[in-house]
Design brief:
The chain is an alpha+beta fold. The protein has one domain (7-115). It has two helices and six strands, in the order H-E-E-E-E-E-E-H. Strands 1-2-3-4-5-6 form a six-stranded antiparallel β-sheet. The chain is globular. 16% of the residues are buried.
Amino acid sequence: MKKHSGYKYHIEQALIKNHWKIVEATSSDGNIWESEYWIIKAVHNSDIKLYFSFNKAWQYELSEVTISDMNASEYTHITSLYLTKGKISDGLQQFITDLNTFRNTIKYQHENNSKS
């Protein structure tokens, strides 16, 4: 990302600090509900790949960032972060905590399955 301010930059920095990396970032110009999406992976387990969607509802000046598991056979919602007028609500820390909890749960499940 080029710009060093704004909510996407702050989200990106929180992801990096918590051992996630953005492997793809795509703008969705033709989609009126989704402005952009990222594919993120856990740094220490590249099998954990998540879909990071920036959703918009301009009439309410509210946006939502949602995370879902790309490896699941069905849609699996992990967490959401709400933005008002392009600013992050107080939920960024909980958003990151939810991501890390998901990653750690997957890691724990994988370790238990390999012991069987």
